[in-house]
Design a protein that fits this description.
about 170 residues, 6 strands, binds guanosine-5'-diphosphate, cytoplasm, GTP-binding, RNA-binding
Length: about 170
C-alpha cells in the first residue's frame, strides 16, 4: 500500500509537531517558507505495510491577500490528487473562521478527509467527545481521531485510519 496524504490546518494547530512525531525524530524540513501553489513533499513514512507520502498543500488556508484566492483554487486542484486529507485542528480552541474556510475548500473534493483533533493533552478527558461531536456536525469526515502530537498519543490510531484509505 502506498499513497499521498495532505496535512492541512491553520497555523499553530500542531502540523509540524505531528509530522515530526510521525517521523520519530526532529527534522528541519518544516520551515514556514512563503506559500507557493505547488504541493511539497514533507516526508515519506515507510511502514511495514505501507508507504505514506506526507504533503504540504499551501493555499487551502484562508488567504490574507487577493493572490490567496488564486492559490486557494490551485490548492483545491492539488487536493484532488491525494488519497487522504488529514485536517488538523486544535482541541483547545473553538472552531473558527480558519476552520470554516478550510471546510469550504473541502466541500468540493471527493477525497476522504480525516479530522485529527490535536492537543487533547490540554483539555479534560470529558471534554474530548463533545468537541469531536461538534466537528462531526460540520463535515462528513471519513474519520475523527483525537491525538496529542506532543505526547505521541493515538498516532497509531491516526496511521491506522490513514492506511484504510490507501
Ligand atoms: P503548525 O503551525 O500547525 O505547524 O503548529 P506547530 O507544530 O508549530 O505547533 C504550534 C504550537 O503548538 C507549538 O508551540 C507546539 O509545541 C504546540 N503543540 C503542537 N502539538 C501539541 C500537542 O499535541 N499538545 C500541546 N499541548 N501542544 C502542542
Ligand atoms: Mg508548521
Amino acid at each position: 500500500k502506498s499513497g499521498f496524504v495532505a496535512v492541512i490546518g491553520r497555523p499553530n494547530v500542531g502540523k509540524s509537531t505531528l509530522i515530526n512525531a510521525l517521523i520519530g525524530q526532529k527534522i528541519a524540513i518544516m520551515s514556514d517558507k512563503p506559500q507557493t501553489t505547488r504541493s511539497r513533499i514533507l516526508c515519506i513514512l515507510t511502514e511495514e505495510d505501507a508507504q505514506i507520502i506526507l504533503l504540504d498543500t499551501p493555499g487551502v488556508h484562508r488567504p490574507k491577500h487577493k493572490l490567496g484566492d488564486y492559490m486557494a483554487k490551485a490548492a483545491e486542484g492539488a487536493l484532488h490528487g491525494v488519497d487522504v486529507v488529514v485536517f488538523v485542528v486544535d482541541a483547545t480552541e473553538k472552531m473558527g473562521a480558519g476552520e470554516q474556510y478550510i471546510l469550504k475548500q473541502l466541500a468540493n473534493i471527493r477525497v476522504p478527509v480525516l479530522l485529527a483533533v490535536n492537543k487533547v493533552d490540554c483539555i479534560p478527558r470529558q471534554q474530548v467527545l463533545p468537541i469531536l461531536a461538534h466537528y462531526a456536525k460540520a463535515y462528513d469526515f471519513a474519520g475523527i481521531v483525537p491525538i496529542s502530537a506532543r505526547d505521541g498519543e493515538n498516532l497509531d490510531g491516526l496511521l491506522a485510519e490513514i492506511k484504510t484509505h490507501l
